[in-house]
Hints:
Rossmann fold; Tyrosyl-Transfer RNA Synthetase; binds adenosine monophosphate; binds tryptophan
Amino acid sequence: MIDTTSYRGPDRVFSGIQPTGNLHLGNYLGALKKFVDLQEAGWDALYCVVDLHAITQPYDMQALPDQTRQIAAAMLASGLSPEKSTIFVQSSVPAHVELAWIFNCVARMGWVEKMTQFKDKGGDNSERVSLGLLAYPVLQAADILAYKATHVPVGEDQKQHLELSRNIAARFNQQFDAPGFFPEPEALIKGPGARVMSLKDGLKKMSKSDPSDLSRINLIDDADTIARKIKKAKTDLLGDMPADVAGLEGRPEVENLVGIYGALSGQSVAAVLDEFGGQGFGAFKPALADIAVAHLAPITADMRHYMADPAEIDRTLAAGAEKAHAVSDPILREVRSIMGFWGAG
Ligand code: AMP
Ligand code: TRP
């Protein structure tokens, strides 16, 4: 029997990054580096600066345009090419908002109330957070499905949001009797760097919103700052570097530093420990600083170069928006028709 429920469209990648604050090594290893790898592997891919997500919490409207350009600059500096991938800003393509509203009427309250990121960001005072913060992952599903994207490269923290996107896609298909219309998008999380932890606490993820700048390596940090932050990174009193993976048990800070080294050097954790096992942190940390600087310095320099010409970034983003619109517009037309909207044919 033919399986009419499964999606048979082309493979397509979509991912987004919010224009909030400085990008850090976690964003680079968990997201940007994967974007570039997928582009180089020849995937049809769209990468989006998700400004509509950034307004779900208090933000600085004066700073938003430059923060938006900064994410675009980071994408370009990391190696994304506007010829090979579609790079654009979420608010410049109307399909995101339209499909998000439709999905607000498909998703169930119980699904969104369960989201751990909402609970973390919202705290327990629902009077103080916007309705948009609750709907945040629904907009994320709309981002992905407005292009019928099948694969979504993200860090580990987005796993639950991707599960929600899958549920929304499946429920839409079922509710509107449109088997296989939307794919159930798959998160691409695996690989080194999916969860980079704070340099100050191996149990907390590296985050833009951590009050301590020493907790993260920013993409715009200079070489001295990177070296200083790694030197000050927390380790433990359990002795030198372990010789094997089992020796990382109960040593989250060390595990994080070794993981970062492996992700940057393209080596497995075991290979890194083969090299550094038995040595002190006095030897390992400078080696880690060297490899981090070697990797990030050209990206930082390129970011500054792109940021020096905002008009060029704007042209790139405008061209990207046109390409994105050309993909999402026919999909939205079909959605309107499936749902029975007047004038949708
Ligand atoms: P955001 O800055 O929250 O928009 O995140 C952009 C991307 O970076 C998402 O794919 C996140 O999953 C990823 N990301 C954020 N923080 C980390 C981290 N500490 N480790 C790995 N990936 C991360
Ligand atoms: N929520 C994601 C984050 O905080 C950003 C995002 C918005 C996203 N829309 C997306 C990621 C669509 C992947 C696909 O990192």
